[in-house]
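ESCALATION

Customer reports they have been waiting on this structure for their group meeting. Please prioritize. Original submission:
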Amino acid sequence: MRGRRCYPLLWRRFSYEKTSKTSEFRESPIYNFVSLAIPAPCTNRDVVEQVAKESRIPIESLSDELEQPVYRRGQSIDNFAGDEFDEIAHDYDNMQWWLSDRGLNMAIVAPLSQIRGS
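Update from on-call: job pushed to the front of the queue and completed.
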C-alpha cells in the first residue's frame, strides 16, 4: 500500500517569493505529517498553532483573521503540515503563508492588481 504524499506544487496559498531561501524550516511543511485532535471550541488559529508545534515550526506572525470562525466542535487533523496550512489559508480571501528565517507567517496579502493600481 502506498503512503500519502505531500504535493507542495499544488499549494495555492503558499508564497514562494516570500519564503526565505535560507530558512531551516523550509522543508518542514513537506515532510511533517501530523495527527492530532484539537478540543472545542477552537479556531483556525488554534489549528495552525498546534500543527506548527507538532511540526516544530516556530510561528513568527499569524493574521488576526484566523480567530474567526469559532468552531463549536473539536477538529481532528491527519495531514501534512503544509497541506493543512494551505487548506486553512484557502478559507480566507487573499491569505498567504510562508516561512521566514524566524518561522511560519500567515497574512492577508493584497493581490498584485491592487498593488499595481489596476
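Sent to customer with the following note: The mean pLDDT is 91.
Escalation resolved.
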